[in-house]
């Protein structure tokens, strides 16, 4: 059975490519998903790629992942810096968790420098745009194939 990965995207991720300042590049969210789906297929992963603007929906999906997914990649976007409920849900998940950000959050405003998600994450990718999402999927495939001792 192929491993299943939930790739969860938080508020406003659906606007990537449409932003005026170009922080998140010019690729649309749909094209980023297509790129991730293609890469997941190459890695032999089943990818469930989702986006919500609502904290509770993200918490429900993380809880659902406990039953249906082997790993989580999550860009909780603006909720990364505030959401204890998302952190608590992630802490209840047993598999690898990769925190992903399109931008380099440490180069930006100081309120983006502390992520609650990081407390639960196995690893973090940031600042590499959609390439970082591909790297997150590669990391998950490797971690699932050979969990660190
Ligand atoms: C995405 C967002 O929407 C912001 O709120 C975060 C993150 C950064 C990103 O880089 O993908 O601060």
UniProtKB/TrEMBL annotation:
<comment type="pathway">
    <text>Metabolic intermediate biosynthesis; chorismate biosynthesis; chorismate from D-erythrose 4-phosphate and phosphoenolpyruvate: step 3/7.</text>
</comment>
<dbReference type="GO" id="GO:0009073">
    <property type="term" value="P:aromatic amino acid family biosynthetic process"/>
</dbReference>
<feature type="binding site">
    <location>
        <position position="88"/>
    </location>
    <ligand>
        <name>substrate</name>
    </ligand>
</feature>
<dbReference type="InterPro" id="IPR036441">
    <property type="entry name" value="DHquinase_II_sf"/>
</dbReference>
<protein>
    <recommendedName>
        <fullName>3-dehydroquinate dehydratase</fullName>
        <ecNumber>4.2.1.10</ecNumber>
    </recommendedName>
</protein>
<feature type="binding site">
    <location>
        <position position="112"/>
    </location>
    <ligand>
        <name>substrate</name>
    </ligand>
</feature>
<dbReference type="InterPro" id="IPR001874">
    <property type="entry name" value="DHquinase_II"/>
</dbReference>
<feature type="active site" description="Proton acceptor">
    <location>
        <position position="24"/>
    </location>
</feature>
<comment type="function">
    <text>Catalyzes a trans-dehydration via an enolate intermediate.</text>
</comment>
<comment type="subunit">
    <text>Homododecamer.</text>
</comment>
<dbReference type="GO" id="GO:0008652">
    <property type="term" value="P:amino acid biosynthetic process"/>
</dbReference>
<dbReference type="GO" id="GO:0019631">
    <property type="term" value="P:quinate catabolic process"/>
</dbReference>
<dbReference type="GO" id="GO:0009423">
    <property type="term" value="P:chorismate biosynthetic process"/>
</dbReference>
<comment type="similarity">
    <text>Belongs to the type-II 3-dehydroquinase family.</text>
</comment>
<keyword id="KW-0057">Aromatic amino acid biosynthesis</keyword>
<feature type="binding site">
    <location>
        <position position="75"/>
    </location>
    <ligand>
        <name>substrate</name>
    </ligand>
</feature>
<feature type="active site" description="Proton donor">
    <location>
        <position position="101"/>
    </location>
</feature>
<dbReference type="Pfam" id="PF01220">
    <property type="entry name" value="DHquinase_II"/>
</dbReference>
<dbReference type="GO" id="GO:0003855">
    <property type="term" value="F:3-dehydroquinate dehydratase activity"/>
</dbReference>
<keyword id="KW-0028">Amino-acid biosynthesis</keyword>
<keyword id="KW-0456">Lyase</keyword>
<feature type="binding site">
    <location>
        <begin position="102"/>
        <end position="103"/>
    </location>
    <ligand>
        <name>substrate</name>
    </ligand>
</feature>
